[in-house]
UniProtKB/TrEMBL annotation:
InterPro entries listed in its UniProt record: MetI-like (IPR000515), MetI-like_sf (IPR035906), Sugar_ABC_transporter (IPR052730)
Source species, domain of life: Bacteria
Subcellular location: Cell membrane
Key words of the record: Membrane, Transmembrane, Transmembrane helix, Transport
Organism lineage string: Bacteria, Pseudomonadati, Pseudomonadota, Gammaproteobacteria, Chromatiales
Protein name: Binding-protein-dependent transport system inner membrane protein
Amino acid sequence: MEKREYQWAWLMVLPVVLVVAFSAIIPLMTVVNYSLQDIFGPDSRFFVGTEWFVQTLRDPGLRDALGRQFLFSGAILVIQIPLGIALALCMPRKGPWVSVALVLLALPLLVPWNVVGTIWQVFARPDVGLAGVALNSLGFDYNYTGNTLDAWFTVLVMDVWHWTSLVILLCYAGLQAIPDAFYQAARIDGASRWAVFRYIELPKLKGVLLIAILLRFIFSFRIYAEPFVLTGGGPGNATTFLSQRLTTMAVGQFDLGPAAAFSLIYFLIILLFSYVFYLTILNMDRGA
């Protein structure tokens, strides 16, 4: 009887296994296959072993793009996580303004990524864009197409505008889940606003912050469309991140083998750092 139920259980999960195999495992194995071959055509390919991996790891362009990627993701986390917490704390907890605030916060998340790049390309133009003209009229020599610092500043501000709402909404949901009894006890004890945040709200937000940090790290590490539309990776290669370099290699140069090896290294970096983030925050939670 138990054996028959065990077989039925496997039959019930079989559709899920097939969907996962079709959507993830088969494409991944295809990339692994390409990364081990030198492909000249449909019937002309040669096994090269780990040659493409060695070549990719020695590529100075990859190392530069990786450095820029870490710098960008680190800056995004440093800016967006504290800003998201602060704005979530300022949001109304009850009343009609709650719905208004939630709708306004959700709007940037609904804008497609390439449209975000187009919006900021126009908005930040130094000749006709509202932000670009305003900065130059204030005395700043602003030009994101020709100055590296201006380009980085614009890409960072664009990403903060686009994605901080996600952090705010997650933190707001976490704050709303805190029982009123905690706040009543704090009022009875005469706790200050900072003490309430430090000893009640922040510990209760740890689970939500773990999700927010992981999502923002993964999304920022995969960024492509917004900076590509805004700056094209320039000036020079100043805002060329890993995904754009990979696209240039795979589509622009049609180097399928090196691009496949690059893709696997890219995927493993995201997987490794996501796991490290997860373990770090988990250990912090245990040590608290």
